Amino acid sequence: MALAVMLLNSASFHAGCCRHKVLLSLRAPLLGDSKLCSSYRRPGAEPAKKLSWQNADFSFKKGIDHLKTQLSLLKKETQDYLKGPSGHQISQHLLEQTKVLWQFRSQEDLNKWVISSDVEIGGKSKVYIKLGRNNQAALLYGTLNTEAPRDGETKYSGYCSMRSRPAVGSFNRKKYYDWSNFNTLYLRVRGDGRPWMVNIYTDPYFSHQKDDLYSYFMFTRGGPYWEEIKIPFSKFFLSSRGRVQDNQHPIWLDKVRTLGFTIGDKIDGPFQLEIDFLGLLNDRAHREEFAYEAYDKNTPV
Amino acid sequence: MNPQAKLICTISLLLGTTITLSSNHWALAWTGLEINTLAILPLIAKSHHPRSIEAATKYFLVQAAASALILFSSMANAWHTGQWDITQLTCPTSCLILTTAIAMKLGMVPFHFWFPEVLQGCPLTTGLLLSTAMKLPPITLLFMTSQSLNHTPLVTMAVLSAALGGWMGLNQTQIRKILAFSSISHLGWMSIIIVYSPKLAMLNFYLYVMITAAVFLTMNSIKTLNLSTLMTSWAKTPTLSAMLMLTLLSLAGLPPLTGFLPKWLIIQELTKQDMVPAAVTMALLSLLSLFFYLRLAYCATVTLPPHTTNHMKQWHINKPTSPLVAILVTMSIILLPISPTILTTI
């Protein structure tokens, strides 16, 4: 669409015998010159830097180093493949009833997570993450601000989130977690009484479903004691672009990509969440398959 | 699913298969393939789960592309030779394009990436249809054109299918994906012999359909979808679990079970055709598949899970097992002694 508009503009310039302007208007996006091609930038968005192809470093040595890194990753993956599923013995896979996925003991553990807030849409919330006392937990803290950005189109604001980095294999191939042996998410956290939302993203293949998210709520107590919160996977509901879907489906745990926490309770003020570890549990007392209506609701009478 | 919709889908599947099997003209064969593709889509996406819809979309895209290639191959042949007869495929380019298209349809390496994902996204009964009934029309086209096809790409794809089908099935814990890789591996065995002895390939296909149907229906009866659940399924039907072990070993091709017959005959035929290295390679690659069949049998029957198991034991199954399961399981195990009778039909 933008290309068609650009071509039309260039055609009209050409009709007016302004050949240099034609070339300039076609050249402008290539050079990244924002003065020549106007583009709206949302408040809070970073100014347009160099275009992606300009960032590419065509260095032969760097390419060889990158190839060596990827080949060593591939070698490690092959060795893990020979051991068993996910690099562990099959007996471990069949017998395990608990598994610690992420624990926060060093900066390296923190680097596996990404924090974000409504600054990306022009909001004013702040979020930070650091290691807690004695390097025994991660501390996610900040300030929530529900003031909407004044850009004429955004009505609501005020969210902060923390999301695990998606696992990537050799040659940037997507890796997925297989949680099908477990039925409960186990979190050891110490909050401040504010409610959080736990989100699981399964990264579907097609873009039609890229906004699908499985979510559930985590109500924290606040107080000096640690909480051990167990959320069965049967409780997670399906939402798309933030809207809870009418047709609900249970989450399929064989291809999970990321786990995230979001706070958006519409209350201005500071928040704080300490996380000791995140794990999985097979709770044999939990027999619910799915918490929401799964029968056909529109059968003809 | 709406019973009327299910009936229409089932009838369309039968119609499409029959049209392709009985056709002499490429356009009619293509029509049958397209009817089959469209009829199976509602069955794959029956539950409307996002993953089922993803599986249906992937299936449609791959099959549509393959059907387009088949049509293109037949049109190229018609352009060069002036006729549309399926058995008169003489243009070499058309043969190559058709080989590629059939490989995509069947899920042979290197066009196999869609198959485990699609099978994982659909229920076990639909997976059974995808692994057996939906393979019949493309295999038939391969059978009818086998004398015209170049054997080099077929043999290459067959060896790769046997290799990758075995290798990639090694670490799977989801049963549908394991059966998908088993299917890819068996397709390798079928396609390596189809040029030299098409009837032997069809025998391999029929026996594969019978044994795979037995496995799928057994898994459907005990309602198990992954290895952990399979470990506790013995409590539901101990006899069926024991027979499942034998059925899986038959699928692996171990004597004295039925599944040994096609592998033995194929190796014998390859040796007669002076393809000893190919025969040895295929025999060695079948060991990879044997590993995961043995693992399935180990989990289902050979071991008792420890006292504290991962899943609540379900002590009974809700519906009685269909008699068809018993017939298929029995035939999957005991047909080897009557192999002289079977051989007279080849």
TrEMBL record, chain A:
InterPro entries: Galactose-bd-like_sf (IPR008979), NADH-UbQ_OxRdtase-assoc_prot30 (IPR013857), NDUFAF1 (IPR039131)
Alphabetized SUPFAM superfamilies for the sequence: Galactose-binding domain-like
NADH:ubiquinone oxidoreductase intermediate-associated protein domain sequence ranges: 102-275
Protein localization: Mitochondrion
GO MF annotation: an example: unfolded protein binding
GO biological process: mitochondrial electron transport, NADH to ubiquinone; mitochondrial respiratory chain complex I assembly
Keyword Transit peptide annotated: no
Domain of life of the native organism: Eukaryota
Keywords: Chaperone, Mitochondrion
UniProt keyword annotation of Transmembrane present: no
Gene Ontology terms: cellular component: mitochondrion
Oligomer status and interactors: Part of the mitochondrial complex I assembly/MCIA complex that comprises at least the core subunits TMEM126B, NDUFAF1, ECSIT and ACAD9 and complement subunits such as COA1 and TMEM186. Interacts with ECSIT. Interacts with ACAD9. At early stages of complex I assembly, it is found in intermediate subcomplexes that contain different subunits including NDUFB6, NDUFA6, NDUFA9, NDUFS3, NDUFS7, ND1, ND2 and ND3. Interacts with TMEM70 and TMEM242.
Protein role: As part of the MCIA complex, involved in the assembly of the mitochondrial complex I.
Family: Belongs to the CIA30 family.
Record's protein name: Complex I intermediate-associated protein 30, mitochondrial
Automatic annotation (TrEMBL), chain B:
UniProt topology in membrane: Multi-pass membrane protein
UniProt keyword Translocase present: yes
Secretion signal span: 1-29
EC numbers: 7.1.1.2
Keywords from the named record: Electron transport, Membrane, Mitochondrion, Mitochondrion inner membrane, NAD, Respiratory chain, Signal, Translocase, Transmembrane, Transmembrane helix, Transport, Ubiquinone
GO molecular function (one): NADH dehydrogenase (ubiquinone) activity
Domain NADH dehydrogenase subunit 2 C-terminal residue range list: 290-343
InterPro entries: Complex_I_Subunit_2, NADH_DH_su2_C, NADH_UbQ_OxRdtase_chain2, ND/Mrp_TM
Annotated transmembrane regions: 59-79, 91-115, 152-170, 176-196, 203-222, 242-266, 278-304, 324-343
Subcellular location: Mitochondrion inner membrane
Pfam families: NADH_dehy_S2_C, Proton_antipo_M
Gene Ontology CC annotation, any one: mitochondrial inner membrane
One GO BP annotation of this record: mitochondrial electron transport, NADH to ubiquinone
Known catalytic reactions: a ubiquinone + NADH + 5 H(+)(in) = a ubiquinol + NAD(+) + 4 H(+)(out)
Keyword Cell wall biogenesis/degradation: no
All residue ranges annotated as the NADH:quinone oxidoreductase/Mrp antiporter transmembrane domain in the record: 23-288
Protein purpose: Core subunit of the mitochondrial membrane respiratory chain NADH dehydrogenase (Complex I) which catalyzes electron transfer from NADH through the respiratory chain, using ubiquinone as an electron acceptor. Essential for the catalytic activity and assembly of complex I.
Membership in a protein family: Belongs to the complex I subunit 2 family.
PANTHER family: NADH-UBIQUINONE OXIDOREDUCTASE CHAIN 2
Protein name: NADH-ubiquinone oxidoreductase chain 2
Gene encoding the protein: ND2
